[in-house]
Design brief:
The complex is a heterodimer of chains A (735) and B (121).
Chain A lengths: L1 E5 L2 H14 L4 E5 L2 H6 L7 E4 L4 H12 L7 E5 L6 H10 L3 E4 L5 H12 L4 H18 L4 E6 L4 E4 L1 H6 L4 H4 L4 H5 L1 H16 L4 E6 L9 E9 L8 E8 L1 H22 L4 E6 L4 E4 L1 H6 L19 H7 L6 E10 L5 E12 L5 E9 L1 H47 L5 H26 L8 E3 L1 H14 L5 E7 L6 E3 L1 H19 L4 E12 L2 E10 L6 H4 L19 H11 L3 E6 L5 E8 L17 E5 L3 H13 L3 E5 L2 H9 L7 E5 L8 H10 L4 E6 L7 H6 L4 E5 L4 H11 L1
Parallel strand pairs in A: 1-2, 1-3, 3-4, 4-5, 17-19, 23-24, 23-25, 25-26, 26-27
Antiparallel strand pairs in A: 6-7, 6-10, 8-9, 9-10, 11-12, 11-15, 13-14, 14-15, 16-18, 19-20, 20-22, 21-22
Chain B lengths: L2 E5 L3 H13 L3 E5 L2 H7 L5 E7 L7 H11 L4 E6 L9 H7 L4 E4 L4 H12 L1
Helix pairs in contact in B: 2-3
The chains are: A alpha/beta (735), B alpha/beta (121).
């Protein structure tokens, strides 16, 4: 194709560069003016490029070119200063097919290509000689190994990538058999078969890991495509071998993620969900659904599970993207109406449409929360017990003063004075106060009730007799007693009070509407241990679960003021658990309530066991003050210790040297038996190495400090005067 | 007339018991705790010690042990209001240690005075 450029030399050069970049061979004809061209031998150009010059000159030249027959398509270059809309319009009117500014000559190439195609100037060129080159370029720039194999199983064409991989010239490979390239075995086993299938018109496609020269561990996709050019006289297979290692590894990653998601969804033992700020669940896993007892595919809103606890709902209302929060002990109600306690940890994010999405985990902590509450309650009761003990002591002292003065006043008052009557009433009020304090003390376990072996039937019958007399007309009593073989270890008056207390509660529950009070005594076997069970069953309104959890709390009462102190059940519970028993309550609203007092049953043989097993230790007390050591000995023995006394060194040696002496702790008063020889004591201590020795010293004496140091860990010092409590403390701390 | 030592840290109770004892013609020596009691104790004069068990400084148990050393035939009445957790029941320990009588607060003043009379005579 001939292109004529009429311009100055520097523009010639620039235009030439631009046109060369188009990549098609053009014949460039460069002249400075039109006249010189006309007088030359150059052929008539298919395209002309003119300018830049004065606009009027350019326009004249343009008119001349486009008036030729055939008319010559012309591109005009104008100076940058002339490159305005008005001038462009003027030039187009004059017949310009393209206008470029002299500072943007690159745009000429676009005009050339456009004009070439529009005027059919390039069509024949491509068909003739350029197409194969372009095709070759395309296949050579492909990273896949491409080859064309003919029906004689010989390479017809290979691309650059192919030749490079096998370090052979493209030309060299033409006519070669794939067997030579890939090896005979692979050719016979695989390639030949694939070629046959391909030549039968099938597209063969497979993935495989194999090695290429210098490259191992890669995955390839191989595709055989049948190619029948012309009328199908000759058949070819176009074989493409593509490295898909990266694709495969991405696929594997995606699969891993998918599996992980599957795991999260199916097996993760923690609930995971995603919700919008209005509580709509967008995604959730199986555990989430299990916790909330939901059926598969239920459309759900999280907020409908929070009936009483609105912390999470409030949080969703005010949430901001990027915020993370954790809620503990959130109370929820499951789809099946069960109360549960959960922990939700959440994080809010914005999605692509700026909506806030909450991602969160859901854990069921019901068990832990209930356990913790129980513990808290136990702690509270213990604290209260300690408190009650302290208060009781002070109150008892005050009450003694009150009752004392009351009695003194009664003595002083005249026989017929009303003061006597007043004082008697004051006295009975004081007794009532005393019984309240005793209840508190029982609760704090400060009073040690004498436990004796009790026939529970007797106590039960006595209590029921009492109940019967107090029974309102609208309550019917059903009593059933079986005899228990054995004894309960308890204070019978306490037991009586417990039965009475529970029975009274049951009666009060039915007071309004009447009902049946079932009271029975039976024996039960739990884990091969025998228990006596006293059951009180009423047909009253029942107890709500929230109340049921708190009935043993001291001072907790649902009764109106004056009807109950809230001490009854907590005291009863305290008594029964101290006896190694339990009170079991079963109730739900509308179904009445059943209280079962369960107490261990002992046979007579069991009761022969010594009571103070824990203190069955032997204490040696060496002191020549016989009176004092005797009092100590009596006190210790009363507490279950075995006490040996030594009033002289001779005694002490005899006891220590006795073959079966087994002493847990030695108390030795320094200087007893008028013996102050340190060496003697030192020898004694050596003999007692490994034993616990307590040395009692005169106040302020440090005489023994070095001995104590020599017998570190085993020798303790206490100072006179010694109280029983000091001695008990030392024993408790060290034995 | 026999003297009685009254050891009690609560002033109200001490006053009440003192008035009652005085009314019954006893000589009363007061002490507010065990240590105070040991300091004021006169073996020849005092026939009976009435002591609370839980007191600041030296407590009643220690006092009973001390007094028994000083005067083995001393009569002792221990009184107690229960009190904080400790090894065993204080009153029963006091009894084991040789208290002649024990009274758990609150107690009847009449019964108490009867016991004092019984021990002194």
């Amino acid at each position: 194709m001939n292109i004529l450029t009429l311009s100055d030399h520097s523009t010639h050069k620039q235009v030439e560069e631009v046109i060369l970049k188009i990549g098609i061979n053009f014949h460039l004809i460069n002249f400075v003016d039109f006249k010189s061209f006309l007088t030359s031998d150059e052929p008539i150009p298919e395209i002309a490029i003119i300018g830049p010059g004065k606009v009027s000159d350019t326009k004249m030249l343009l008119l001349e070119l486009v008036s030729k027959t055939p008319r010559i398509p012309t591109v005009v270059i104008v100076k940058k200063s002339d490159f305005g809309a008005e001038i462009q319009a003027e030039l187009i009117k004059a017949g310009a097919l393209g206008i470029s500014s002299d500072d943007n000559l690159g745009s000429i190439s676009q005009h050339i290509v456009r004009i070439s195609i529009a005027h059919g100037l390039v069509e024949s060129d491509f068909n003739d000689s350029y197409a194969p080159e372009i095709l070759q370029y395309i296949i050579d720039s492909n990273d896949s190994l491409l080859s064309v194999i003919n029906q004689d199983n010989r390479y017809e064409v290979v691309n650059e990538a192919f030749s490079q991989k096998f370090s052979r010239n493209k030309e060299e490979l033409i006519g070669v058999s794939p067997a030579e390239i890939w090896g005979h075995e692979i050719f016979e086993d695989k390639i030949k078969l694939n070629l046959e299938r391909c030549l039968n018109g099938e597209i063969v496609r497979y993935k495989a890991y194999f090695d290429l020269p210098g490259i191992t561990g890669k995955c390839y996709e191989v595709i055989y495509r049948p190619y029948y050019p012309g009328k199908g006289k000759r058949k070819f297979s176009i074989v493409e071998t593509r490295d898909i290692t990266d694709i495969e590894s991405i696929k594997k990653e995606v699969e891993d993620i998918r599996q992980k998601n599957f795991y999260f969804e199916k097996y993760l033992p923690i609930g995971v969900f995603e919700c919008s700020t209005d509580g709509k669940i967008l995604t959730s896993n199986d555990t989430f659904r299990n916790i909330l007892e939901l059926d598969e595919d239920d459309e759900i809103n999280l907020l409908s599970f929070f009936n009483s606890d609105h912390r999470f709902t409030d949080y969703l209302d005010s949430i901001k993207a990027g915020e993370a929060s954790t809620f503990s002990q959130l109370k929820m109600e499951t789809a099946k109406g069960n109360d549960i306690f959960v922990r939700i940890s959440s994080h809010a994010r914005s999605d692509s449409e700026k909506n806030i999405i909450v991602n969160a985990t859901l854990e069921d902590n019901t068990r832990e929360v209930l356990l913790e509450r129980k513990l808290t309650m136990t702690n509270r009761m213990e604290t209260l017990g300690t408190l009650a003990g302290g208060i009781a002591h002070d109150f008892n002292t005050i009450l003694t003063t009150i009752s004392g003065y009351t009695e003194l006043t009664i003595q002083e008052a005249d026989e017929d004075s009303p003061v006597r009557d007043y004082m008697t009433k004051l006295s009975s009020a004081t007794s009532k106060a005393e019984s309240v304090i005793n209840q508190m003390l029982t609760f704090s376990k400060q009073i040690t009730h004498e436990k004796i072996s009790v026939k529970i039937e007797k106590v039960f019958r006595e209590a029921m007799q009492f109940v019967r007399t107090a029974l309102p007309y609208n309550i019917y009593l059903e009593e059933e007693t079986s005899s228990i073989n054995g004894y309960i270890l308890a204070d019978p008056t306490q037991l009586f009070r417990v039965f009475l207390n529970i029975a009274t509660n049951s009666i009060q529950a039915m007071e309004r509407d009447g009902g049946i009070l079932g009271a029975s005594l039976r024996e039960s076997l739990i884990d091969s241990r025998r228990f006596a069970e006293v059951e009180f069953r009423d047909t009253g309104p029942g107890i709500e679960k929230s109340i049921l959890d708190r009935i043993y709390e001291p001072f907790f009462t649902t009764k109106e003021t004056g009807k109950g102190t809230g001490m009854g059940l907590s005291v009863a519970h305290g008594i029964i658990t101290e006896l190694g028993g339990d009170i079991i309550v079963e109730s739900s609203p509308g179904k009445g309530a059943t209280f079962v007092v369960r107490l261990p049953v002992y046979l007579e043989n069991d009761l022969m066991m010594p009571e103070n097993q824990e203190t069955g230790r032997t204490v040696l007390y060496a002191d020549d003050n016989i009176h004092f050591s005797r009092t100590i000995s009596i006190a210790l023995e009363s507490l279950g210790y075995q006490v040996l006394l030594a009033s002289s060194y001779d005694d002490l040696h005899t006891i220590i040297n006795a073959p079966d002496s087994k002493i847990d702790i030695y108390f030795i008063r320094y200087g007893f038996d008028n013996q102050t020889d340190k060496n003697l004591l030192d020898n004694l201590f050596r003999k007692l190495t490994g034993s616990k020795i307590v040395v009692i010293l005169k106040p302020g004496s440090s005489i023994f400090n070095d001995f104590a140091r020599n017998h570190r860990g085993d020798v303790f010092i206490i100072h006179e005067p010694v109280s029983l409590r000091d001695i008990l403390n030392v024993i408790h701390e060290n034995c | 007339m026999a003297a009685i030592m009254l050891v009690e840290d609560d002033e109200g109770l001490r006053e009440m018991l003192k008035s009652s004892l005085l009314k019954n013609k006893f000589q009363v020596i007061e002490a507010t705790n065990g240590r105070d009691a040991i300091n004021k104790f006169k073996a020849i004069l005092i026939e009976l010690v009435i002591t609370d068990l839980l007191m600041p400084e030296q407590d009643g148990i220690g006092l009973i042990i001390e007094l028994r050393k000083i005067k083995p035939d001393l009569k002792i009445i221990a009184i107690s209001g229960g009190g904080k957790a400790g090894p065993g029941n204080y009153l029963s320990i006091a009894q084991t240690l040789g208290a002649n009588a024990i009274f758990a607060k609150p107690f009847s003043l009449n019964l108490f005075i009867d016991k004092v009379n019984e021990l002194i005579n």
